[in-house]
Amino acid sequence: MTITLDEGDLAPDFDLPTDDGARVKLSGLRGRWVVLFFYPKALTPGCTTEACGFRDAYGRLGELGAEILGLSHDPVEKLKKFRAKHQLNFPLLSDPERVVTEGYGVYGLKKFMGREYMGIHRMTFLIDPEGRIAKIWRKVRVKDHADEVVGELERLRG
Description:
By secondary structure, the chain is α/β, with parallel strands linked by helices. Helices cover 30% and strands 28% of the residues.
């Protein structure tokens, strides 16, 4: 994994399909804060915990002017099931070609139980209203991560 982005950099734009058949273009969200979280695989325990944390923080993040976007390589059909099963209240984006995950430097070599494989590293980017990266969480612990993001956004907004 080569992380080429730093806080202060312009967030790379993208245009991806969502779980509900719409499309989201990052540049179309200018003027708002964006919480962009990358997760390895829908319907798995860690990813479910993380997504449900953001679901539960949706109101607080909305009051702070933030949109939440979850992004994985999963196909749109699987994202639909994930969103419905856990009543997620924000769009899930599908990046099966790995264009965005590679562009953000979150796709790379992972190790689990002595096995090496390529996949998404769980990371979150907080993007400011001008489209710049305000904060990067490079090592996300899913429990209480959404609260951490809310706290950082409150701090940045003063």
